[in-house]
Design a protein that fits this description.
Helix content: 40-55%
Structural class: alpha+beta
Number of domains: 1
CATH class: Mainly Alpha
Strand order of the largest sheet: 1-2-3
CATH architecture: Up-down Bundle
Shape: globular
CATH topology: Single alpha-helices involved in coiled-coils or other helix-helix interfaces
Order of helices and strands: HHHEEE
CATH superfamily: Immunoglobulin FC, subunit C
Number of strands: 3
Largest sheet: 3 strands, antiparallel
Strand content: 5-15%
Bound molecules: zinc ion
């Protein structure tokens, strides 16, 4: 596979687009990883990283991987790290998982099957 001499013309727009998606996916991945790493030191910066990842995702239509999306607080945008700023509870009677963000107190409930 070679891109040599290929200019992004209308004809290979598809190729360019998938290249964009690959880069976007990589960036989202890096941003979310860094967001988790920096969380203990700087919550605001961590939120910023998540915000950027979301922005890239929106602009490029690349989805944030499902398993990661469940661990981002929808309310305050923090990455949720279990044992640090998130609490997880299981509700066996209605097969739901409850993830609470200890940063802002937001709660999200997911059925077992949808998660992971
Ligand atoms: Zn939160």
């Amino acid at each position: 596979m070679s891109f040599m001499g290929n200019r992004p013309t209308r004809r290979n727009y598809g190729k360019t687009r998938s290249a964009v998606a690959t880069v976007a996916r990589e960036r989202i991945d890096i941003l979310l990883r860094q967001a988790e790493e920096i969380l203990a030191k700087d919550v605001e910066l961590s939120k910023r990283y998540v915000g950027l990842a979301r922005k890239i995702s929106k602009r490029t239509k690349v989805r944030i991987p499902r398993e990661k999306k469940h661990y981002l607080c929808r309310n305050c945008g923090q990455p949720l790290v279990l044992g640090k700023n998130a609490r997880i509870r299981l509700r066996p009677n209605n097969s739901r998982i409850i993830i609470s963000c200890l940063g802002c107190g937001a709660i999200r409930r997911c059925p077992y099957r949808k998660l992971c």
